[in-house]
Design a protein that fits this description.
alpha+beta; D-Maltodextrin-Binding Protein, domain 2; seven-stranded mixed beta sheet; four-stranded mixed beta sheet; disordered N terminus
Length: about 475
């Protein structure tokens, strides 16, 4: 999953690694669906919160002791761009203020594992990298790039993260990653004026969503904007449908390669997706236009053009609010959001995140990741908007609006009862590489949604190759 709005372009976002929560989490999400997510998310902006985007004071209460590192330099690599990168640099600036170190942000290309490989081959790895997939962490460990987390980092992990979050960053019993960022990726944003003109209401089920789409189309507006140029958006569509329709047990079996992509449950999910993707008139620009639209543009074109935008609604995570803000749309009036509708008995919840991993072991690198594992760092970025933390000790008051506070609380209240996104559990060649694997297969399916069997065969072939199981 990934994550990056202008910001989230990989995975997984989101800015976006992603998480799928069920069972207890489903109950938490039901409460969110009935409350917080029924409201519009307030877009982030300066002057409304501590450390807002007006560049104000981003310092926060000190909960962790850091060493003085005067004269030390560090490099931190991530795929983040736009506001997400800008806000993270404010977090790094606070680390500099406390320690005297100088930190440089290194923009990474996607997939970041390939980017890091070239840096390491050239003898210039960054000190720390933010990795968007558990599979990428394991790759970094297997290639002997990643360094174990020191005792100060582990102390912060134990204080601030549930055991499951700690386990996700652990490889063969050794902790390597600190999940600094998370995202809720089971949301659909909509243009409120378009819905009002069409007489449409927020759908709760997939059947309701199809009815809503028809009402919007009949009103003269294309129903959906799809950022198909970024393949992760399509895997998110699939995962939301599959989890809700097939259920968590089946989901786990597919993620763990205990069933194949040729399983009937995959056929059913693709067939369900085709109910929307096969309606060319329902997609802004048709399939070809969708495949040329990156995620940020898929959001902005939904909220520009008054009551005649290019589309009435768009799939996206909580991080989409950054792109919405760029359009000048007024949250609460123009931009609203509803949970991804239930296809089966329970509405799905997909989330995501990025983990800080040390590539050059040093006192300074350990100190930086200790800071990122503390509530101090996350509290700064929470106040800047477009961000959620899995750190359970970040105060609710850190978030800039009530809806985002409730979304963050739902994430924390899920405790250990969650599952990671399927594509992020897979080898990156299958689940996280542009032009390959699942991303490419679903892009091809968006263009030709009648080819369900062929898509399943390609998914299974590519998954087998990436896993090296020869099946």
């Amino acid at each position: 999953m990934r994550s990056t709005s202008s910001t989230i372009r990989t995975h997984r976002t989101a800015g976006t690694t992603r998480i799928i929560r069920t069972a207890k989490a489903a109950r938490v999400v039901a409460a969110v669906a009935a409350g917080a997510l029924a409201f519009s998310l307030t877009a982030c902006g300066g002057g409304r919160n501590s450390g807002g985007q007006d560049g104000g004071d981003t310092r926060t209460t000190t909960t962790v002791t850091l060493p003085r590192l005067d004269g030390t330099t560090l490099e931190v690599a991530a795929v983040w761009t736009g506001s997400e990168q800008t806000n993270f640099k404010k977090v790094l600036a606070e680390f500099e203020r406390r320690t005297g170190a100088r930190v440089t942000f290194v923009p990474a290309q996607d997939p970041i594992v390939n980017f890091l490989g070239s840096k390491i081959a050239g003898g210039r790895p960054p000190d720390v990298a933010l990795l968007p997939q558990p599979g990428a962490i394991r790759q970094a460990v297997e290639r002997k790039w990643a360094k174990p987390l020191g005792p100060e980092v582990r102390e912060q992990l134990a204080k601030n993260y549930s055991q499951r979050w700690q386990d996700i960053g652990t490889v063969d019993g050794t902790p390597y990653g600190v999940y600094y960022k998370a995202a809720n990726k089971s949301l659909i944003w909509y243009n409120a004026r378009v819905f009002e003109n069409a007489g449409a209401s927020e759908p709760r089920t997939w059947k309701d969503l199809l009815t809503t789409a028809r009402l919007i189309y009949d009103s003269g507006v294309t129903p959906f904007s799809v950022g198909g140029a970024d393949g992760w958006t399509l895997t998110d569509w699939f995962e939301n449908v599959y989890l809700s329709q097939a259920g968590p047990e089946k989901y786990d079996r597919l993620a763990q390669r205990r069933i194949k992509w040729t399983d009937p449950s995959v056929r059913d999910a693709l067939t369900t997706l085709a109910q929307i993707w096969s309606r060319k008139e329902y997609l802004a620009g048709g399939p070809d236009g969708a495949l040329q639209t990156e995620f940020p543009a898929s959001v902005t074109q939904t909220f520009t053009g008054g009551d005649q935008p290019k589309a009435g609604m768009v799939y996206g995570g909580d991080f989409a609010q950054v792109n919405i803000a760029e359009t000048g749309a007024e949250a609460g009036t123009d931009a609203k959001v509803f949970p991804f509708p239930a296809v089966g008995d329970t509405a799905p919840v997909v989330s995501g995140g990025d983990a800080a991993v040390i590539l050059k072991d040093s006192r300074a690198a350990q100190a930086l990741v200790t800071f990122l594992a503390s509530p101090d760092a996350a509290t700064i970025q929470a106040g800047l908007g477009g961000y959620l933390s899995p750190n359970r000790n970040v105060p609710d008051s850190a978030y800039p609006n009530e809806v985002q506070r409730r979304i963050a609380r739902a994430l924390i209240d899920a405790g250990d009862d969650f599952r990671f996104d399927m594509s992020d559990q897979a080898p990156q060649a299958f689940g996280g590489t542009p032009g390959k694997g699942e991303w490419k297969a679903l892009q091809d399916f968006l263009k030709n949604p009648g080819d369900v069997a062929g898509t399943q065969a390609r998914l299974e072939r590519d998954a087998a190759a990436a896993h090296g199981d020869g099946s």
